[in-house]
Amino acid sequence: MWLADQIRAIGLQPAGDDGTYFQWFNLQRTRLAKSSTLRIGTHQVKLDVDGVVTAPTNATVNAPLVFVGSGSAAELAKVDVKGKAVAVQISGAPTDGISYRRYVFGKFSGQTTDLVKAGAVAVVFISDAPSQALYDHWSHIYERGRYSLPGAASTKVVSSPPVIWLPASAAIWAQQAGQQLTADLKVESFLYPSVNIVAKVPGTDAQLKKENVLFSTHQDHDGVRAPIAGDSIYNGADDNATGCAALLAIMRAFKQQPARRTALFVYHGAEERGLIGSTYYAAKPTVPQASIVAVLNAEMMGRNAPDSAALLGSIAPHLNSSDLVKTALAANQAGPKFKLDTEWDKATHPEGWYFRSDHLPYARLGIPAVMYTSWLHVDYHTPKDEPSRINYSKLTRMTNWMYLTGWAVANRTAPPAREPGFKLER
Which residue ranges traverse the bilayer (predicted)? Predict the structure, then answer.
């Protein structure tokens, strides 16, 4: 509502549903019910406090717990895991260029699959020292459950062996022999609303105003979560209040001087829950989908080195419009002259950053799309992502770069050409 009030004050036309600034859509949320219980030996594990279940599942388990070390083939050969709950010590490090986070989460998936095939009825992962930092930073994401659009495969309530993640402090008792694991896990699933905020500055050209240059960002973050160093408010100043501020500034510029094409502004909801708002808008836009000639996405634009930035979608296989990228590069040279880091856009980059923001659903449809970012930092998805840590001069220059690109696209006669044979690696 605050953003809509700001947009109204700037003077933009509403471009949502029914003459409003809003496009409402439902989220499907699937999570463990609060009545779910877990006990290991004499330890009552308070879920989302003393440990987490990594995927919502209906499960009733009463089985002996066996510890298999790191779960290597040699260690598993010594143990019959059929009908048992299996405890595994997280260990090792990635050797193939992926991030440590993806390495650990990959172990959850890969080792669980192998153990369940061997007959395990539950899998318990115990953090080691390196993965404890990961547990501290990321385990809270499981408390909220899973989100998706209604009808998506991830909303299906399943009954499968539970996967449990414990902190390193649990190693003392979770590895003890002769313990029983008992769990009674129940899943609940329900709908509630989220929203995209949509506004426009109509173009001035009789024909080109039917086409839209879409300025994209997301207006959600993580809200109130598990405390870190006594602070439970995840402010999201860089992720993504910087993008929200950038779009307001670009709106003011287009309102003052409209372009030939229409400038369309979309604040996507539920990006942090899996690009849900942008997935919904890309599939059901409030303008004809074919009228969207380019998407310029703002994602985290106010941190790291003041002279450096990144343009994602600028190199193959993420490049879906050389034409749009050339325009963006020219705008950079005409404006802020950032040193551009292309590492974050490579398919081999461990963070897979290209796949984690709102340009992606549009790119998958073949719409020319790029993302402006100053990339990740140590305060990412922590309560320390606060306004005092933003480099406002850099944010201004990032915004100017995005505006200059959009202004050029909105005024040229031909829309940005699409890359022939474009295909993402995943």
Answer: none
Distance of alpha carbon 144 from alpha carbon 142, whole angstroms? 5
What are residue 31's DSSP bridge partners? 188
pTM for the model: 0.90
Q: Compute the C-alpha angle 29/152/58, nearest 5°.
A: 55
Residue that is written with structure tokens 């790119």 in the block: 363
In the structure encoding, which two tokens stand for residue 193, read together? 């609303």
Q: Domain map of the chain by residue range?
A: 2-29+191-411, 34-185
Residue 292 dihedral angles phi and psi, to the nearest 5°? -85, 110
Say which DSSP state 384 is in. Answer: T
Spatial separation of the C-alpha atoms in residues 87 and 323, rounded to whole Å: 53
Residue 158 has a pLDDT of 72
Work out the pLDDT band at 101, boundaries 50, 70, 90.
Answer: confident
Contact status, residue 128 vs residue 88, Cβ threshold 8 Å: no
d(CA 242, CA 127): 34
Q: Band of the pLDDT at 174, cuts 50, 70, 90?
A: very high
- Rounded distance, CA 324 to CA 337, Å? 17
Nearest to 368 by CA among 307, 424, 320: 320
CB 273 within 8 A of CB 193: no
**CATH fold group of domain 34-185:** Glucose Oxidase; domain 1 (3.50.30)
Q: DSSP labels for 197-238?
A: EEEEE--SSTTGGGSEEEEEEE----EEEEEETTEEEE--II
Q: Which pLDDT tens digit goes with each residue over 10-34?
A: 999 999 999 999 999 999 999 999 9
Q: How far from chain centre, in Å, is Cα 327?
A: 27
Specify whether the CB–CB gap between 295 and 214 falls below 8 A.
yes
pLDDT given at position 96? 73
Burial of 191 (0-12, 13-18, 19+ CB in 10 A): exposed
Q: Does domain 2-29+191-411 match CATH 3.40.630.10?
A: yes
